Amino acid sequence: MRAISRIALCLWLAATLASLSPRSAETVELRHGNRFGAAVGVLADPVPSVVSAEVSYDLAPSWRLHGGLGAGASPGFLEDRTWQTYGAGVRFLVLPQRPFSPVCGASLTHATVKWDFMLGLGTETQDTWTGGLSAGLDWQTRVGFNAAIGATVLLKPSDGPFETTWGLLPFLRLGWLF
Q1: Which DSSP state fits 47?
Q2: What Rg, from alpha-carbon coordinates, does the chain have?
């Protein structure tokens, strides 16, 4: 519950700061001309990737569809865990007419997790679905550079490899819209 309160506070602060920026015809047109995008991320969608790559398309100035691939690794003492992910989702830009906009989103991810056990005990593989709800701040320049920072709440499945691993993940995404 504390994590959700922090996300709500960040969204309120971002919306307040964004509303103070000057309005011009240039900022209103900012997100209308650049509909396709490509980005790389750290702890970004598809969650729970450590590194990821995604493509996106803006259906409307406020609505962005995205899909991508990701990977992660977690070395351990008696086992090493690696995973590959793919997923898709939607994001809502609260103030699309501004260069800085609060953003919230939802995504669904499929992960294939592989454990390599030490001492020759073999490997184990598991497939799982998980989702995430995210909130943060999105920034876009006139030439199309796009950056986003925020946090994702991992919707943990009732069982599976991520059931007790994470709850709240910060993310950073850098990309280009064209």
Answers
A1: T
A2: 18
The CATH number of residue 48's host domain is 2.40.160.20
Amino acid at 30: L
Residues 6+ apart with CB under 8 A from 56: 36, 37, 38, 39, 64, 65, 66, 67, 91, 175, 177
Q: What is the DSSP letter of 154?
A: E
> In which domain, by residue range, is 78 found?
2-177
Residue 13 token pair: 């602060």
Whether this prediction's pTM lies above 0.85 is answered by no
Three-class secondary structure of residue 156 per DSSP: coil
pLDDT at 24: 45
If one counts the domains in the chain, the total is 1
Taking the chain (178 residues) in runs of 10, the rounded mean pLDDT of each run is: 58 52 51 86 89 95 95 83 94 94 95 82 86 94 94 73 66 95
